[in-house]
Amino acid sequence: MYLGSFCYSACQPKAYCVDALRGEEIWSTPTGDVCGSITVADGVVYFSTYGSEGGDTFYALDAFNGAQVWKNPIGWTDSTPAYYTPSDSPRSYIYVSKGYNGPGTTYCLDAKTGETIWSTEGPGYWTASPVVTADGKVFVGNLSALSCLDAFNGDVIWQARGGPSPVVVNGFVYTVYQGRVIAYGNGTLPDLTVEVEAGDRYVAGERGVVTAVVENIGKSSVTRSFKVELREKGVVIDEKTVEPPVNISEPLEIGLSWTPSTPGEHTLTVEVDPSPGNVSESNPWNNTANVTVEVEDNRPDLLVEIEDVVYEGGMVTVKVNITNIGHETHDGFLVRFSVDGRVLDGRWVKLGGHTLSMSFTSSALEAGEHTLIVEANPADTPAIQDEITWANNQDSAQVEVPEPTPTPTFPARYPGGGGGGGGGNLWGSLFGEGTGQGEGSGTGSFTLPVNETQGETGMLKHTEKGYRMGEEPAGSAGGGGKISYIWILIVTLTLALVIYGYWREHRFGRGGV
C-alpha cells in the first residue's frame, strides 16, 4: 500500500510503502508534502507535492525500495496523475495539472524519464485531476470549463461547461458544474461487438480454427487499430490486430488458431479491443463472447461386431464388421479368430475406410455348443499401442453343431437261401443238394436281381434286391458252392445237346429200320 504525508512544515513529509496486512513500514522516502493521491504503474510510484519546501516537484519513485527514479519541478499542485500506455506506442505517459500560483496548466511527462513532452496552458487546475481514454484523449477541468485534449500533442479538441475532475464511463464524460452533474456523450462513437463461431470438429493435438465475427454497430467508423484475443482460462492462445477503418455494419471474420491439448469440453473466450483498449466506444461491455466446444480424443477406438453365424454342410462361417469409432488411424493390426479358446486364424489388416467386413470359417467341429470369438488389435499383442479403450475390441457368438446323420452301408454279399445237402459232387455244386456247412438254415433258392431307387432327403439311395449272379459266394445256403453264369451256360448247352441227340437218334434211327 502506498501513501504520502502532509505536514505543513511540522515534520518531514514522506512517501511510504506499508504492508497492507500487518501495517508494517516497508520503506519511506523524504519528499515535499504529498497532497494528491499516489498513482502506481509498471513498478513506479507517481505523485505530486504542494508547499514551499520541495512542494513544487513531481516525483517518480521505485515501488519496491522507494529510490528516486526521476523528478520534475512543475509547480505546486494537488493533482492526481493519470498514466497512459498506447497499444501502438513503446512510450508511456503521465498527465497532471497545476494552477495554484499561476494559470492552470496540464502537463504530459514521459513516464520513464520525467521529460516534459507538452504542456497546455488554460485547461486544468491545481485541484483538478485529468483522465485519459484508450483512444488518446485527455479530459481535464478547471473552475468553469471541461476540456478535451489530444493526448499526444496537447491540442484542445473541444471545451464545454464543467468542473475540475471528470470521470469517463461507457463513452460518456461526467463532470460537476454549478451544483449539477453534467454528462457529455459523443452520439457518434463506434461500438464494437463480437460473436464466436466454432468449427465442426476439434481433435486433441490438431490445429483448429475459431472464427471471431466482429462488427461495428455504433454511429461512426473505428479509426484506430485494435486487437482481437482468443483465451482459455485467462491465457491468451492467439491474437490478431485489426487495422482501421472498421465501418458501420460491415462484419469482419477473423480466424484465430487453437490446438487443444486434451480431449473433453473446453470454454473459449474471444475479446475485441481488450483492456486497456485503444478505441473509445459507446458500449465497451459487449466486446466479449464465449463458446464451448467438445474436443475429440486423438486416439483410435476399434469396435468389433459379429454380424452373422452360419452353419451349413459341416462348415461354420462367421461374418464380422470392424469399425473405428475413434480417431482415424492408418496403422495395421491383427484380427484373431478362435473357437472355444483355441486360435484358428489370424490376419493382419488395415482399415481402408471407416468399417472393414471380413469372414472366418471353421470345419470338423464336434457336435455340441461352441463359443466363437473375433478380436481386433488384441490387448496382449497390440499393434496400435494407444487405443481409447480395449473394452469393445472383441465380440463373441455361440453356435450349435448337430449330431451327424448316419451314412447307410451296403453289404458286400447277400445271403443265399437255405439249401439242400452238401456237395462235393457236380450236382450238389450246381444245385445245392445235400447238407451244407453255411450259416443259413433255409431251403436253398435264389432271386433274380431287381434294381430299385428310393428317394431320401439330401441324398439318393440305391438299393438292390435279390441274388447277385456274379462271383459272390452262396452265403448261408445249406450246401453248394458257387453258381456262376458259366455253369448255367454249360448245363443249358449240355441239356440242349442231349435233347438234340435224342431227337436225332429217334428220328433217323427209326427211318433206317
Please provide a written account of the structure:
It is a single chain. With 513 residues, this protein is mainly β. It folds into 3 domains: 2-185, 7 Propeller (Methylamine Dehydrogenase, Chain H), CATH 2.130.10; 192-296, Sandwich (Immunoglobulin-like), CATH 2.60.40; 302-401, Immunoglobulin-like. The protein contains 2 helices and 35 strands. The chain has helices spanning 426-431, 485-512; strands at 2-4, 14-18, 25-30, 39-41, 44-48, 58-62, 68-72, 82-84, 93-98, 105-110, 116-121, 131-132, 137-141, 145-150, 156-161, 167-169, 172-177, 180-185, 192-197, 202-203, 208-216, 226-232, 235-242, 252-258, 264-272, 288-296, 302-312, 315-324, 333-339, 342-349, 355-363, 368-376, 394-401, 450-456, 459-465. The strands form 10 sheets. A 5-stranded mixed sheet has the order 20-26-25-22-23, with no helix packed on it. A 4-stranded antiparallel sheet has the order 4-5-6-7, with no helix packed on it. Strands 8-9-10-11 form a 4-stranded antiparallel sheet, with no helix packed on it. Residues 416-480 have low confidence and may be disordered.
Helix content: under 10%
CATH class of the largest domain, please?
A: Mainly Beta
Over the alpha carbons, how many angstroms does the gyration radius reach?
57 Å
- Low-pLDDT ranges: 416-480
CATH superfamily of the largest domain: YVTN repeat-like/Quinoprotein amine dehydrogenase
